[in-house]
Design brief:
The protein contains seven helices and ten strands. The protein is of the alpha/beta class. Bound molecules: adenosine-5'-diphosphate and magnesium ion. Residues 49-50, 171-172 line the site of magnesium ion.
Length: 257
């Protein structure tokens, strides 16, 4: 058991629409992630992965249930506090990289540091170290749109780590890459998540990428189970997620810094 709980979800529900058009994307999801853990969230397309990540990243609010990240209840805090949390504690990696195409690799990585008001000298030093860590030390001045998909995702990883986030969320980070590049990116993510001491949740539908995980969670039709279900998308015991939640006081584990 880890010292600190970074993520705690309890009875999380999220539905879209109403009446006959109602979609229950999450049906009572409960789990915790401890400090420094790298958890892979696997599940088929449409199983609820993005919906869950959006709730953890403060991009969306649950229909019911509670979600705590780095000691803060996201389901009840104000929009201003959510913004602050997104700037300081949580970072995202997307399938489509999400870089600003006309900015250089270095400028893209520096964006979160600018938002935090980090002085130029420190910013440039951190950016340089990060781009070297992701193997792009020789591409710092190249514009993002001139880089390959794999290189762009490396820049996005460097950017996501720039401000030393508490929680890194990655939504299908290898979805647009060939399988070999995808495996390289996942291995790089594992190495950096551990060396930078970040806690990470990585969503993927690719079962071949689960080996990088400290722990695997499987989601199927909005129901979460601990571990990797045998058949893709076929989580057998919908009740199992509840038993994965240890008794611990919500909000007690502030693990920032
Ligand atoms: P995944 O990321 O695993 O592919 P999603 O979380 O995107 O799954 O979607 C889960 C379910 O919720 C799907 O049935 C999807 O169609 C539905 N859904 C997701 N976003 C919306 C939305 N904004 N409006 C209506 N339905 C949605
Ligand atoms: Mg998705």
């Amino acid at each position: 058991m880890s010292d600190a709980t970074i993520v705690r979800a309890e009875g999380l529900r999220r539905s879209y629409g109403s009446g006959t058009a109602k979609v229950e994307a999450l049906r009572g999801v409960s789990f915790t992630i401890g400090a420094g853990e790298l958890v892979v969230l696997r599940g088929r397309s449409g199983s609820g992965k993005t919906t869950l990540l959006n709730l953890l990243g403060g991009l969306d609010r649950p229909s019911d249930g509670t979600v705590t990240v780095a000691g803060r209840r996201l389901d009840t805090i104000s929009s201003a506090q959510l913004l602050e949390l997104r700037r300081e504690k949580v970072s995202y990696i997307f399938q489509s990289f999400g870089l600003i195409p006309i900015l250089s690799a270095a400028e893209n990585v520096g964006v979160p540091l600018r938002l935090l008001g980090v002085p130029a000298v420190q910013r440039e030093e951190r950016v340089k170290v990060l781009l070297q860590l992701v193997g792009l030390g020789d591409h710092m001045r190249q514009r993002a749109h001139e880089l390959s998909g794999g290189q762009q995702q490396r820049v996005a990883i460097a950017r996501a780590l720039a401000a030393k986030p508490t929680l890194l969320l990655a939504d299908e980070p290898t979805g647009q890459l060939d399988s070999r590049t995808g495996a390289q990116i996942m291995n790089l993510l594992r190495t950096l998540v551990h060396s930078e001491g970040v806690t990470a949740l990585i969503a993927t539908h690719d079962t071949s990428l689960m080996e990088i995980a400290d722990r695997v969670l499987t989601i199927s039709d909005g129901v979460l189970t601990e571990g990797a279900a045998e058949t893709p998308g076929a989580a057998e015991t919908p009740g199992a997620a509840e038993s994965a939640v240890p008794a611990q006081v919500t909000g007690a584990a502030e693990a920032a810094g």
